[in-house]
Amino acid sequence: MSETNQSIGAALRDARIAKGYTLDDLQQATKIQKRYLIAIEDEQFSDLPGDFYVRAFIKQYADTVGLDGQALLDQYNDQLPSTKTQEYVDRVNDDNPSRRSAQHTENERMSNLRRRVPIVIGVLVVIVVLVGIWLASTNRAQQQHSSQVETSSVSVSGSSESTSSKAVSSSSKASSKSADKVAFSQVSTTGTDTTFTMKNAPAKKTLTLSSDQSAWSSVNVNGTSVWQGTLQSGSQHKVALASDATSVTINMGNAPATTVTVNGHKLPAAKASSSATTTESSSTDGTTDTASASSSSTINQVQNITIQFK
User: Where is region (Disordered) located (predicted)?
Assistant: First the structure.
């Protein structure tokens, strides 16, 4: 052996010792038999199984002890047995016990997976069948229910129409009665002041003033003035009343020409108070003649109308 070949064995041995590995440790780490490791350190390459194992074992040895295996092979390339192709190195790796163990584990895992595939497929088939049965049963129940509903609808259609007609008629009558409940009643009249009550007044109320002649008016709600102005002929003015309004007073300068409505309900004309007219005259003989005119009803031009909401 040349000095160069001696150096590769010594370099590997020195690296192993520097790592603190024994030959037994190295055998455990690389799965290379101890006798082959000794042959590599003694550079007895002929003791290895074949020429292609020399490079593979040296590279694996060098990588395990912290050296660059490929660089070491390149450095001592001329002193090492030649190999035909890189295929030999790959073959050595495949024949390595650790690689074989890993491959065995992988093969075992794939075998277990293949054994489980039929079981998984069988479970999936059972699930699909059960789902199909459930869907068919649900669809059948829905069809039966739909058929029953249609039959019931046909049998009661005449009754429903009659009932609906009666309900509409009753509703119309109830609405009519409800509308009739809203009514004005004149409570008192003193001079130009007249008081009405509005029974069953709704919470939301709108007062509307309209006139067919020029007429001045003012509106007071609960004693507070909310509007005043002059209505022109053919015009109107609306005042929205608060829900808490208990009374509204309308002062009208031209009452005969002014119309008052609350939510579309027209306020009736105030009935004027009866009054007696007395005429006194003096005769030539110093006596006084008194003539009484019969009572008459008149409509005052100026009126103050108060509506109390009940």
Answer: 83-109, 142-197, 269-297
